[in-house]
Amino acid sequence: MSTNCHPEVPGEPTEKTTALLETATATIQGFGPINKIHQHLCAFHFYGHDMTRQVEAHHFCAHQNEEVRQCLIYDGPEADAKLIGLEYLISENLFMTLPDAEKPLWHSHEFEVKSGVLFMPRMPRALERQDLENVCKTYGKTIHFWQVDRGDNLPIGLPQIMMALTRDGQLDENLASDCEKRFGVNFAKERENRGYMKGPEHGIHPLANGAGKGLQTKLREVDCKPAAEPVPRIFV
């Protein structure tokens, strides 16, 4: 079932001494990787094995370089939002270098962008479209650790591969409508505005998007490789 669920996290409220300590550490320490975050994208993910389970995903992204971005994914834009996953975005050129066995784990962004359902909250639409022209050509690999859609109040179970929308009729209408109202966006209007955008130069690769099949993370018991044997001591 698609939902925009925000389960309450168990635990005692943050104490004043903890808050004071956090203030001190925030003043003294550096947060280089976090400070590189420059962008907030909102989109929808579904579980690779179950398209009926859809999640509103807020991406906070930083560039590694012109062809690689990395995003922390939260269940909302608020300060107390839960960190539920991560996504890597790469260019078409880098995607083409991946082994064929790896490609199905990555999804395309062309439909998400051109349909209007991937957007940048509070960003002027004209400025937003300048960046989304680039996102439209990329591929993403997404893992969710916290299944908030089923009401989990802690990250329970295995991390799961997530996929993105690739055609009309996939996105839950109630989820879409609720998001449009809260953020003051109009997906249909943005679809019209983005009609000129182009996806990957060579078209969407047939092995992307799960190669058209469902994908689910499974746990398998295997023998654990032991640590290297210590080098024998010949001389004392």
Task: Give structural notes.
With 236 residues, the chain is an alpha+beta fold. Helix content is 24%, strand content 22%. The protein is built from 7 helices and 7 strands, in the order H-H-E-E-E-E-H-E-H-H-E-E-H-H. The chain has helices spanning 16-28, 32-35, 92-96, 110-114, 125-135, 173-183, 187-193; strands at residues 39-47, 50-65, 68-74, 83-90, 107-108, 139-144, 160-164. The chain has a 6-stranded antiparallel β-barrel. A hairpin with an 8-residue loop joins strand 3 and strand 4. The protein is globular and about 75 Å long. The model has no long low-confidence stretch (mean pLDDT 92).
Helix and strand topology:
Blueprint: H1 16-28, H2 32-35, E1 39-47, E2 50-65, E3 68-74, E4 83-90, H3 92-96, E5 107-108, H4 110-114, H5 125-135, E6 139-144, E7 160-164, H6 173-183, H7 187-193
Antiparallel strand pairs: 1-2, 1-7, 2-3, 3-4, 4-6, 5-6, 6-7
Descriptors:
236 residues; 7 helices
Give the SSE order as H and E letters: HHEEEEHEHHEEHH
Report how far the terminal alpha carbons are from each other.
Answer: 67 Å
- Given as residue ranges, the uncertain stretches (5+ residues, pLDDT < 50) are none
What structural class results from the helix and strand content?
alpha+beta
What fraction of residues sit in β-strands?
A: 15-25%
Portion of residues within helices: 10-25%
**Overall pLDDT score:** 92
Q: Report the C-alpha radius of gyration, rounded.
A: 21 Å
Strand element count: 7
Overall outline: globular
Instruction: Give a short account of the largest sheet.
Output: 6 strands, antiparallel, barrel
Order of the strands making up the biggest sheet: 1-2-3-4-6-7
The total of helices stands at 7
By oligomeric state, this entry counts as: single chain
